[in-house]
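Reminder to self: tokens first, then the designed residues, so the page reads top to bottom the way the pipeline ran.
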């Protein structure tokens, strides 16, 4: 927060009379106002290189960061939605790069805590739409139900909310909806299988160390269909066969950008399927019921005609079968009615123990007594001095009172004498004048 404040204050001081709008031409300013519509944001990024796009996104967020002003939360929430829609449009046009996606995820993650309520509301609206879509299209193609829009949303949710909680406000309902889609929607073509692999990996990443019934059901049905051949009827909604995936070329990675691409190699999809099975086994190897959960899937893997694919896929199939056998060798503990030792009743009887008292050595008390006499003598002298000071104060007070009374009496006598003298002088004056 302080870093954003220092940066924006410095740039605002330098450009306090400049307009914050940016039309996409010229040098990129440090301060860019938040676009109000997707069309404005798209026009802003038109004819921009990858580095410039990343710089524009970062500077828009830095200029209008919620930590600077309270009113910026609304702008940030609006830009949040606009950026997601922009990523969806780029993914639909097959022009979305991994670098742009990573930068967008970091940007969204950095401001998520400031706009949690608006973000939850937006994701819940998307989730409700997905629920209704799966309910209305039960039995239809999986790639038609899970459109590219939801693929981008799922990737962002996984990056923004990295959690290992058993219950999460956003990811838990998303996982339940995707598990429902894996079992309710049909797998008729290669794109359906690729979307299903993506959904399985998403669920496994969000539920590490937990049982994922939708993923295991999907993988079991897919490999049961691959191992069954053409003679057996369709297994529920899974209508792909081994001939649909036959490809002897060397397999590679299946990127997220190729989920809806019809030119993807079949061996890449098969490799992604087997890697998903390995991840599911490793996540569930601590379960006591591991052998029962993966028994049907392991039986189907043994019947898969692996010779139709590359040697890498053949070795991976064999390693999965041996991995299942290895995890099944775990000894299951016996069921016990009471495995914990019962807690004993607390007893209140007193405990007596030997107390060791250390004996002190006998010391000569002469030094101690001399010190005590000296201390007491000092105390007695101190008290005598206090008494003397008190007696002196009392005597001084009495003498002052006596002097004050004597002075008052002298003043009275002198006043009386002066009055008498005045009267005598007056009488003498009158006799001299002959008035008497």
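Designed residues (436 positions):
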């Amino acid at each position: 927060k302080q870093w954003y404040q220092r940066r924006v204050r410095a740039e605002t001081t330098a450009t306090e009379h400049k307009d914050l709008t940016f039309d996409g031409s010229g040098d990129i300013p440090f301060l860019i106002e938040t676009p109000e519509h997707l069309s404005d944001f798209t026009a802003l990024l038109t004819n921009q290189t990858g580095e410039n796009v990343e710089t524009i996104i970062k500077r828009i967020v830095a200029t209008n960061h919620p930590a600077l002003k309270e009113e910026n939360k609304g702008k940030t929430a609006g830009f949040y939605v606009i950026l997601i829609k922009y990523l969806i449009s780029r993914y639909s046009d097959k022009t979305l790069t991994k670098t742009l996606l990573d930068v967008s995820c970091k940007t969204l993650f950095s401001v998520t805590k400031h706009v949690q309520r608006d973000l939850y509301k937006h994701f819940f609206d998307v989730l409700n739409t997905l629920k209704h879509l799966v309910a209305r299209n039960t039995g239809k193609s999986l790639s038609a139900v899970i459109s590219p829009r939801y693929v981008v949303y799922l990737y962002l949710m996984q990056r923004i909310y990295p959690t290992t909680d058993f219950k999460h406000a956003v990811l838990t309902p998303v996982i339940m909806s995707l598990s429902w889609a894996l079992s309710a929607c049909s797998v008729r073509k290669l794109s359906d299988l690729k979307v299903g692999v993506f959904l399985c990996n998403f669920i496994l990443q969000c539920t590490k160390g937990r049982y994922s019934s939708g993923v295991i059901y999907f993988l079991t049905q897919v490999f049961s269909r691959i191992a069954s051949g053409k003679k057996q009827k369709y297994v529920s909604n899974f209508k792909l066969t081994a001939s649909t995936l036959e490809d002897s070329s060397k397999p590679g990675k299946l990127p997220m950008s190729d989920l809806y691409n019809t030119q993807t190699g079949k061996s890449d999809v098969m490799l992604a399927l087997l890697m998903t099975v390995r991840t599911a086994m490793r996540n569930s190897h601590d379960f006591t019921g591991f052998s029962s959960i993966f028994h049907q899937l392991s039986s189907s893997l043994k019947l898969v005609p692996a010779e139709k694919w590359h040697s890498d896929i053949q070795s991976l199939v064999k390693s999965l079968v041996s991995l299942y056998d290895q995890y099944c060798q775990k000894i299951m503990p016996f069921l016990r009615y009471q495995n914990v030792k019962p807690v004993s009743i607390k007893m209140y009887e007193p405990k007596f123990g030997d107390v060791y008292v250390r004996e002190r050595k006998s010391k000569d008390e002469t030094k101690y007594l001399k010190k005590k006499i000296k201390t007491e003598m000092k105390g007695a002298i101190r008290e005598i001095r206090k008494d003397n000071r008190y007696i002196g104060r009392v005597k001084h007070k009495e003498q002052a009172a006596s002097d004050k009374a004597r002075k008052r009496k002298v003043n009275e006598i002198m006043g009386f004498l002066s009055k008498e003298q005045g009267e005598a002088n007056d009488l003498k004056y009158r006799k001299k004048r002959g008035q008497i």
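Residues 366-433 form the longest helix (68 residues).
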